[in-house]
Structures are given as structure tokens and as C-alpha cells.
Write a structure and sequence with these properties.
The complex is a heterodimer of chains A (110) and B (115). With 110 residues, chain A is mostly beta strands. Chain A is built from no helices and eleven strands. In chain A, strands 2, 4, 5, 9, 10 and 11 form a six-stranded mixed beta sheet that branches. The chains are: A mainly beta (110), B mainly beta (115).
């Protein structure tokens, strides 16, 4: 779906580095944004939600939202091999529909 | 607490057969969502319920698909008749929508193969 755009990757980073994942969206009415991690063959797992402009930190993860520029990003500090997965960006519309990007594949190289 | 429960985890059926997928949301959650995931189309919202009432079914691909939520702890997604192009992973997710929180939690999914 074009409503949420993600670079499909693959993105490769060395262990211990910062992984930066980006997402853009087209609907300015979007209020809520989410990052999910999905391991191969598994279901999406919620990592972060962000509702207001700025940064939100949770452990090694930082979500950044810029509504004026219509992008949301996820930074993973001190990347670990266990972080290797597909990361899905999602937005919630005012009608409570959720739209997901196609995901960015991340590989953390030991 | 138990998470979202889906059954069956795998389903293999022949074209033309009826398929019923089941979901038990997290206790206390008031919204339930059905998604389909394929390599080609990614994760697509099919339908969602709020307080057991279907709110938006615009993502349901055809009349062959139907969903029900008879009570707060159970929902079904039915495909009748099934076709090979319905092969996908079907996820159910639930959420407690409070006006300040909208996080969704996914079940393990049902992998459907229609031959």
C-alpha cells in the first residue's frame, strides 16, 4: 500500500552499531504510529508506539515522529544479532483503520 | 495473561471448501482486527470490530469472505468457497482502545494453503 512507505532493504549493520529505519506516510490526518518487529514465520510484535512529535525512548529503541514532514523513524542502538528481523511501520487513521508498510529487513552482522 | 489465541495454526484445504478461522482476543480488549499477509501485498486489514460490532469491512476482498464476533471473547473469519489465491497467513489482533492508547497485539496467525 502506498499510504505507508518503507525502504524494503535489506539493511545490514554491524553488531553494536545504530540501525536507522525510516517510514513516510501520506495522510496528514494520521495521529498514531507504531513499529512492529516480525521474525520470519512469526507474528508482528509491538515495539513502540508514538503519538506526538518528537522522540520517544524505550531501552535501546527510540522512535521519532515529525508530523510536518510526515515521517517516523526507529533507531536501534547497540544493535544485536537478535534484532535481525523485518520491521513494520504502521499508522492509525482517524477512522481507526491501521495501515502497514511492507517492512524493512534488518540484518545485524556479528 | 494469555495473548491472542488463533486456531488452527495451519490449514490445508482444497479449492471450493469452506474454511473457518478462529480468534480469541486478549481479555478486556474492546477492538479486534483481522489481517491477511502475503509476500506480494504485505499486511492488509480485512475487517475490524469495536465492542463486537463490525466497523469497517472495506478490506474484505470478496463476498466469499465473512467475519463474525458473537461475543467479546470470540471471532471467526470464514471463506466460502476457498480459492488458491486465498493462500496466506491470517492474523487476528486485539486492542484496548481508550482514546489515549491504540496498541494492537497480534496472535500467532493461521497459515492457510488452498490447493
Amino acid at each position: 500500500q502506498k499510504e505507508v512507505e518503507q525502504n524494503s532493504g535489506p539493511l545490514s549493520v554491524p553488531e553494536g552499531a545504530i540501525a536507522s529505519l525510516n517510514c513516510t506516510y501520506s495522510d496528514r490526518g494520521s495521529q498514531s504510529f507504531f513499529w512492529y518487529r516480525q521474525y520470519s514465520g512469526k507474528s508482528p510484535e509491538l515495539i513502540m508506539s508514538i503519538y506526538s512529535n518528537g522522540d520517544k525512548e524505550d531501552g535501546r529503541f527510540t522512535a521519532q515522529l515529525n508530523k510536518a514532514s510526515q515521517y517516523v523513524s526507529l533507531l536501534i542502538r547497540d544493535s544485536q544479532p537478535s534484532d535481525s528481523a523485518t520491521y513494520l511501520c504502521a499508522r492509525r487513521s482517524t477512522g481507526n483503520q491501521f495501515y502497514f508498510g511492507t517492512g524493512t529487513s534488518l540484518t545485524v552482522i556479528p | 495473561d494469555a495473548g491472542v489465541i488463533q486456531s488452527p495454526r495451519h490449514e490445508v484445504t482444497e479449492m471450493g471448501q469452506e474454511v473457518t478461522l478462529r480468534c480469541k482476543p486478549i481479555s478486556g480488549h474492546n477492538s479486534l482486527f483481522w489481517y491477511r499477509q502475503t509476500m506480494m501485498r504485505g499486511l492488509e486489514l480485512l475487517i475490524y470490530f469495536n465492542n463486537n460490532v463490525p466497523i469497517d469491512d472495506s478490506g474484505m476482498p470478496e463476498d466469499r469472505f465473512s467475519a463474525k464476533m458473537p461475543n467479546a471473547s470470540f471471532s471467526t473469519l470464514k471463506i466460502q468457497p476457498s480459492e488458491p489465491r486465498d493462500s496466506a497467513v491470517y492474523f487476528c489482533a486485539s486492542s484496548l482502545v481508550t482514546g489515549a492508547s491504540y496498541e494492537q497485539y497480534f496472535g500467532p496467525g493461521t497459515r492457510l494453503t488452498v490447493t
